[in-house]
Write a structure and sequence with these properties.
256 residues, mainly beta, 13-stranded antiparallel β-sheet, two-stranded antiparallel ribbon, 15% helix, 51% strand
Length: 256
């Protein structure tokens, strides 16, 4: 069941004007499956615009129809903790008070299977050299589960941090050779988004994140499977390009 269908089933009428008011400025992709995910991300965002006060509300605190491993819940909600070090300084994030409210879920053979929709809430704490942050995260996720793993997921997430509110719409596919995530952050009137895709490297798989402001590429960041900076990270802020290279979290000289 899509987000729009669910909202309609709950009696939340979507205004045709509101639905088309602010289409996400997402990139054009050739892969049909990825294009469908990006469209789902846009559909979710339009649903939020049409009913912002109700979008993250679950009518009742539903229960999973079968036992769901904690790791799968983390994969669905993106609430995995991480801690690391860079240049001898600690950084990371952790989640607490995670509450998950299933909306649509079916099981087959004692395992989640097919389309899953949920609303979740969590407190996120992040830290790094010279900073600490705390935010309240609320999200609505639509995902497809097969053989006990997430095939793809789309998410609209609201983050409240120090009084600031941002809304992010994302489409993710952990498996695949193309885009694995496309997120548009809306805060202060500026639209930003990032693409995340797997990159094969000599030291193992990496994740590449490309950040854009509108259609302008701002930064490219690469990290290894543990989230440590790995590979060439490039910044193009202010029109001046700068590259910094890493190997598993340690800065090294860039080749070429």
């Amino acid at each position: 069941m899509s987000v729009v269908n669910y909202l309609a089933a709950c009696g939340l009428a979507l205004s045709a004007v509101a639905v088309q008011a602010q289409p996400l400025q997402l990139p054009q992709v050739e892969d049909a499956a990825q294009a469908a995910l990006l469209q789902e991300a846009n559909t979710q965002y339009q649903g939020y615009l049409a009913a912002p006060d109700n979008y993250f509300h679950a009518e009742a605190a539903g229960r999973w129809p079968c036992a769901v491993p904690a790791k799968l819940v983390q994969d669905l909600t993106g609430t995995s903790d991480y801690a690391g070090r860079q240049g001898g300084k600690a950084f990371g994030h952790k989640f607490s008070k995670v509450a998950v409210h299933p909306v649509v879920a079916e099981c087959r053979g004692g395992k989640l299977d097919g389309v899953v929709e949920l609303v979740y809430e969590a407190t996120r704490q992040a830290w790094g050299p010279g900073f600490k942050a705390r935010s309240q995260e609320t999200g609505r996720v639509v995902a497809t589960i097969k053989d006990g793993r997430v095939i793809h997921r789309t998410e609209l997430r609201r983050s409240v941090n120090g009084g600031d509110v941002s809304v992010a719409s994302s489409a993710e596919t952990p498996a695949g050779a193309f885009i694995t995530s496309a997120t548009t952050l809306v805060a202060g009137g500026a639209q930003k988004f990032f693409l995340k895709r797997p990159v094969a490297g000599a030291g193992g798989p990496r994740q590449e994140k490309s950040y854009y402001e509108g259609t302008r590429l701002v930064t490219v960041e690469q990290a290894d499977a543990r989230g440590r900076p790995d590979g060439r990270n490039t910044s193009n802020k202010g029109g001046a390009e700068k590259s910094t290279c890493f190997r598993h979290g340690k800065e090294i000289a860039c080749a070429g």
